[in-house]
């Protein structure tokens, strides 16, 4: 009986958190669902009217939205292909604990802490076709200049590059945490058997790191789908719609074309798209709690 | 012999990685102290240029800049205190009590908030806020920041409180201290380093936040990231003052990083969940 009362006393500690989350997330999401069925526009003198599922039919079931999904997935997955090998590779080297490791580790973590907007601007300057230091570098080693932010594929890869620059440290950090928690003995055994360090890493350590890889993958997947600031600064979706991800499309619809109702419908669709990753993450978190 | 080769290769890779990681920072700072001519020079001038303070003087000469700096600091500090205060209570419940009313829905809500793309919430939130006549209100912006960073604060604090041995608390309880006194006089002092680290991490996220203020802040409550982004839409791209503003956003982060260097790794990786 007492423990039942205690459970609710403890629960009362979470009341402020609940209020905050309800006011700032549940209310907007609820009104988002409502807005998504209306024709509201920002700054319009004509009040919005209910339009049923028209916004979904027009915007969600459209080629532009599908295109945005594809762009989002391309940017996310190419990014993973860069961030994981480099992040885990660097972690493996740092894990050897050579002299000066702490200094290297801190320096390598810096990019993930910096203001994304400032990061985007720095890179925009560096990627400038005529004045940028990157094209100068290409020039001086005899390669041709690239119109980084002006051509569709170059622009997509520029975003992948900048996001990877900022996110690889996070992957490295997770890998380091994973490595620190591994038992030594299987590795010793591999060494005794004469496996090279690289082979030992691939065949012995990586399989043991599976849980870390999985969680890191989920987080990077979510953050890839959420990526906004850097794209906003670098291209704002241009050239054409080449870098218009679902987030940018929602933003542009809502705040460039001022179509609040249609943007809300896109937002709800994006929420539904992220739901599978949400479920996987929640499951992973619950599993981790049972173990740990 | 083979092993020494491995060590040299390792250092080689690390040095290249550090150069790649830090070059953009170096380039921003150096552009911020270059004249227009030097910043556009071809080939680029890495070290051989006459440093100038002109870009910073232009920035500091603007009344608007000081207001933006003030807004950024006030919003960052207040929302951080709010998020960590509210978050600590919940973290205490999560760390100390495996079962309490609403625990599982709470965990689910926290993960959901973390996975939702910000823009999805911001479209309707913008509508609600403007309808209520609260556009450009620092108060609302602070609340939204705090809510957005709340799950992150809770995750971090749960980890830190979990590290405090529960025996300390039980001791205090058997000595006759009640729940509130135990929390205030025993748990809180022990959790203080964790609270400080959490505050720094949350402050970092608030400091860097862009989407919330770009949509909810007008001229009165604009923050530094919004100001920096504003340089792009200007007709001529003026890289000098822009680099100076970017450098000013980044330098406090470098200082804080140095301050918490020891806790950096533990904090960041338990904050797998960074918002």
Explain the overall architecture.
The complex is a heterodimer of chains A (292) and B (275). With 292 residues, chain A is mainly α. Chain A has a single domain (40-291), classed as MetI-like (MetI-like fold, Orthogonal Bundle), CATH 1.10.3720.10. Chain A has helices at 2-12, 15-35, 54-60, 63-95, 101-113, 116-126, 133-140, 152-180, 185-192, 197-208, 210-226, 229-234, 246-256, 260-291. Chain B is mainly α and 275 residues long. Chain B folds into two domains: 1-52, no CATH class; 57-270, MetI-like fold (Orthogonal Bundle), CATH 1.10.3720. Chain B has helices spanning 2-32, 36-39, 54-60, 63-96, 103-115, 118-131, 138-162, 166-174, 179-208, 211-216, 224-233, 239-259, 261-270. Chains A and B meet through α1, α2, α4, α5 and α6 of A and α1, α4, α5, α6 and α7 of B.
Task: Please name the defining characteristics of this protein.
heterodimer; A: 292 residues; mainly alpha; MetI-like fold; globular; B: 275 residues; 2 domains; 13 helices; disordered C terminus
Low-pLDDT parts of chain A are none
Helix content of chain B: over 70%
- Rounded mean pLDDT of chain A is 88
Give the DSSP E fraction of chain B (strand runs of 2 or more residues): under 5%
CATH topology description of the largest domain in chain B:
MetI-like fold
Q: Which regions of chain B contain 5 or more consecutive residues with pLDDT less than 50?
A: 271-275
The largest chain-to-chain contact, stated as pair and per-chain residue counts, equals:
A-B, 92 and 93 residues
> Please, what is the CATH homologous superfamily of the largest domain in chain B?
MetI-like
Name of the CATH class of chain A = Mainly Alpha
The total count of strands of chain A amounts to 0
């Amino acid at each position: 009986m007492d423990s039942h009362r205690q459970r609710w006393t403890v629960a009362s500690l979470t009341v402020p958190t609940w209020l905050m989350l309800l006011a700032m997330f549940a209310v907007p999401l609820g009104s988002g669902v409502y807005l998504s069925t209306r024709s509201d526009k920002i700054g319009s003198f004509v009040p919005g009217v209910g339009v049923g599922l028209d916004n979904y039919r027009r915007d969600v079931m459209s080629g532009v939205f599908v295109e945005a999904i594809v762009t989002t997935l391309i940017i996310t997955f190419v990014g993973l292909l860069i961030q994981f090998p480099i992040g885990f590779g660097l972690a493996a080297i740092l894990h050897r604990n050579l002299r000066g490791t702490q200094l290297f580790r801190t320096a390598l973590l810096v990019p993930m802490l910096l203001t994304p907007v400032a990061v985007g601007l720095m890179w925009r300057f560096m990627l400038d076709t005529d004045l940028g230091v990157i094209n100068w570098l290409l020039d001086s080693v005899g390669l041709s200049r690239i119109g980084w932010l002006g051509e569709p594929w170059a622009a997509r890869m520029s975003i992948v590059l900048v996001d990877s620059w900022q996110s690889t440290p996070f992957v490295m950090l997770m890998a380091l945490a994973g490595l620190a928690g591994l038992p030594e003995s299987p590795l010793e055994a591999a060494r005794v058997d004469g496996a090279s360090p690289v082979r030992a890493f691939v065949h012995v350590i990586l399989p043991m790191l599976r849980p870390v890889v999985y969680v890191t993958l989920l987080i990077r997947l979510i953050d890839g789908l959420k990526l906004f600031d850097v794209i906003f600064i670098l291209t704002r979706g241009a050239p054409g719609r080449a870098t218009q991800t679902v987030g940018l499309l929602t933003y542009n619809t809502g705040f460039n074309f001022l179509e609040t109702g249609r943007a809300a419908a896109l937002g709800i669709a994006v929420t539904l798209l992220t739901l599978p990753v949400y479920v996987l993450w929640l499951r992973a978190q619950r599993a981790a709690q049972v173990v740990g | 012999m083979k092993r020494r080769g491995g060590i040299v290769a390792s250092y080689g890779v690390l040095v290249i990685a550090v150069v790649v990681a830090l070059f953009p920072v170096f380039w921003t700072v150096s552009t911020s102290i270059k004249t227009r001519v030097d910043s556009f020079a071809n080939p680029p001038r890495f070290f051989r240029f006459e440093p100038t303070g002109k870009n910073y003087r232009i920035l500091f000469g603007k009344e608007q800049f000081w207001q933006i700096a003030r807004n950024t600091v006030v919003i960052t500090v207040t929302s951080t205190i709010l998020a960590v205060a509210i978050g600590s209570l919940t973290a205490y419940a999560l760390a100390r009590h495996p079962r309490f009313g609403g625990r599982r829905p709470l965990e689910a809500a926290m993960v959901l908030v973390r996975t939702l793309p910000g823009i999805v919430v911001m479209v309707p939130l913008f509508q609600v806020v403007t309808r209520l006549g609260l556009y450009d209100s620092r108060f609302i912006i602070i609340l939204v920041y705090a809510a957005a960073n709340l799950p992150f604060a809770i995750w971090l604090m749960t980890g830190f409180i979990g590290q405090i041995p529960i025996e300390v608390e039980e001791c205090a309880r058997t000595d006759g201290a009640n729940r509130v006194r135990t929390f205030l006089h025993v748990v809180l002092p022990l959790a203080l380093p964790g609270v400080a680290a959490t505050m720094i991490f949350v402050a970092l996220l608030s400091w860097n936040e862009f989407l919330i203020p770009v949509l909810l802040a007008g001229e009165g409550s604009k923050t530094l990231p919004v100001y920096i982004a504003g340089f792009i839409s200007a007709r001529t791209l003026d890289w000098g003052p822009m680099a100076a503003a970017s450098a000013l956003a980044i330098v406090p982060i470098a200082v804080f990083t140095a301050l918490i260097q020891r806790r950096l790794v533990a904090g960041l990786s338990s904050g797998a969940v960074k918002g």
